[in-house]
């Protein structure tokens, strides 16, 4: 009994609801920001400013439409 494949459509991401896509992007962005926050605690000065700028831009890059 081999597991059934959803076919080529699932491998292309076709058929998953847009809510699933947005949810996974939000989860990625949340974890990314959380990880950057942990790294930010270990940096200082100029590096910290760059890290904060990256965190501010990340939701746009992840396609969340947050401005």
From TrEMBL:
Taxonomic superkingdom: Eukaryota
Compositional bias (Low complexity): 10-21
Region spans: Disordered: 1-21
Listed name of the protein: Uncharacterized protein
Species name: Ensete ventricosum
């Amino acid at each position: 009994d081999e597991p059934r494949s959803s076919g080529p459509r699932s491998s292309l991401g076709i058929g998953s609801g847009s809510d699933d896509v947005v949810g996974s992007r939000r989860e990625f962005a949340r974890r990314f920001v959380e990880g950057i926050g942990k790294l930010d605690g270990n940096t200082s000065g100029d590096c910290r400013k760059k890290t904060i700028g990256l965190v501010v831009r990340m939701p746009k890059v992840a396609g969340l439409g947050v401005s």
